[in-house]
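Run log, item B.
One chain of 245 residues. Sequence copied directly from the ordering sheet:
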Amino acid sequence: MSLRYKILFITDSLAFPRAEPEFVSYEETYIAYLKHEFPDCDFIHQGRGGATIVDLFTHTAYFHETLRADLVFIQSGIVDCAPRALTVMEQHVVSRLPVLGRLLTSLVKKYSRWLRKNRKITYTSVDRFSAYIKKFESLFPNVYWIGILPATGDYEAKIEGIQQNVEIYNNVLRKTQMIETTMFKSIDIMSDHHHLNAAGHRKMYASLAAIIRKELSLKEPNDVDKRPASTYIPAIHPAASSDVS
């Protein structure tokens, strides 16, 4: 059996179906559309909701030395760049305080706007974000980075500073093979301001499909079939968390 053209997706929750705040079925996700259009390609999706780029690097460790992907798409950044009231460590400490924790959580929520504005905390610094981009690109040879979706005016009103941070982190991504997202408008994004709705998934699918067609056209006819046949016999592990098809 010859190896098929392998396309690896590494994403946070933006690639997944959702039941809320608006409904998007699996069949309406951009990955499902791509699988339908390119049935001869082997799509591997490793994703984790709420993940930073550092989390995704850790979460994909099983693939770092075992998967020879022909094409890689990574969608990450909104979790990294959003202004935060507390650091991850501070959140962990507060959550483990039985009585005081509830009081502190209430105070943080009450003053979250002031805390985000004045503390200027993000889960991932710009320098660390850039460093992990390089880490991923040292592992995989052909990586495309999906840009962070534009922050709408409503999102900025909810989380002050998000528009500036999105632009700063996207400028880091623009130094790579970045897929621009400036064409996405509020009508493409859920009411939570950062997840794709059904229309947004269709628009993302169109952008990604164009890139896949271009990359496939660069392959010689039967190029995939010329590669050594696989001798790997997969074991079945019910607890496996990755979506491989």
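Observations after the first pass:
- The first strand starts at residue 6 and ends at 11.
- The chain has ten helices and six strands.
Flagged for discussion on Thursday.
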